[in-house]
Amino acid sequence: MIHAGQGVPEMTDQVHRRSREHPEARLILAHCGAGIFDGIWPRIDDFPNVLFDTSWWNPATIAALLRLVPPSRILFASDIPFATPTQQAVQTLRLALQVGLTDRQIQGIMGGQARRVLAHQDVLDLGPTPPAEQPIAPALERMYVMLVAVCERMLGGQEGGQELLMALDGCAAGGDGPDGDVLRAMRALLEQIEGRTDRDPLRQQRTFRFDLAAVVATIARTPNAPLLGRERSTAGTVR
Fold first, then answer.
1. How far apart are CA 46 and CA 19, in angstroms?
2. CATH 3.40.1280.10 fits 11-118, yes or no
3. What pLDDT is stored for residue 228 in this prediction?
4. Does residue 233 carry a pLDDT above 60?
5. So what's the pLDDT on residue 11?
6. Among 47, 48, 51, 239, which residue is least crowded by beta carbons within 10 Å?
7. What mean pLDDT comes out for the span 57-81?
8. What is the per-residue pLDDT for 229?
9. Which three-class secondary structure string do you get for the chain?
């Protein structure tokens, strides 16, 4: 496993060189490849022993990984202790449904592939990347951008700030519109963040309920994934 981070652009060439030199090894790029993702994924087919894990908080980064990299190259990871397993599982599963991955592909990502990697078995062939998805509605995109700003603040131990209040107001105002069910679900979760000042004893550097804010941002980014009270049909659409 390689802790792929920002500020080390030469790591892209190092990964490719190590991949060629050690074809029997499995090289796992942590944190969605982080700073070297864009240097790796366009050439991923040339290096069958390079994989990525999902341990990152930003929904757009996880979505890009699930959309651009073949599912056979992706392993679920929780990023403990910086994230909670529940946060990371909800984010990864919702984003996988949103981009159009099949049940078999999701099962492989969420553990099936990792078991084979740990057992030194051939990796599962989980098929190609999903088809291009439709852009999210403007109202949800607006909420998503504000909530990512909220997460950035909470990541550093600050309060949610103006964007949190604006997101609360926006979810309330849009509750009767075409995206009302998504916005109402988001507001119900955001209300659990507002006004909280206590600290998570396991993650003192982050504002309490950061993980919940990351989940709400993910819900804004994944309107086609199920919500409580909504069912997902066999064709993958929500009804």
1. 9
2. no
3. 66
4. no
5. 87
6. 239
7. 94
8. 54
9. CECCCCCCCCHHHHHHHHHHHCCCCCEEECHHHHHHHHHHHHHHHHCCCEEEECCCCCHHHHHHHHHHCCHHHEECCCCCCCCCHHHHHHHHHHHHHHHCCCHHHHHHHHHHHHHHHHCCCCCCCCCCCCCCCCCCCHHHHHHHHHHHHHHHHHHCCCCCHHHHHHHHHHHHHCCCCCCHHHHHHHHHHHCCCCCCCCECCCCCCCECCHHHHHHHHHHHHCCCCCCCCCCECCCCCEC
Q: Is the pLDDT at 199 greater than 80, yes or no?
A: no
Q: Where are the domains of the chain?
A: 11-118, 138-221
| Banded model confidence at residue 46, pLDDT cuts 50, 70, 90 | confident
Structural tokens at position 46: 């040339």
Question: Among residues 134, 173, 135, 166, which one has the least CA distance to residue 149?
Answer: 166
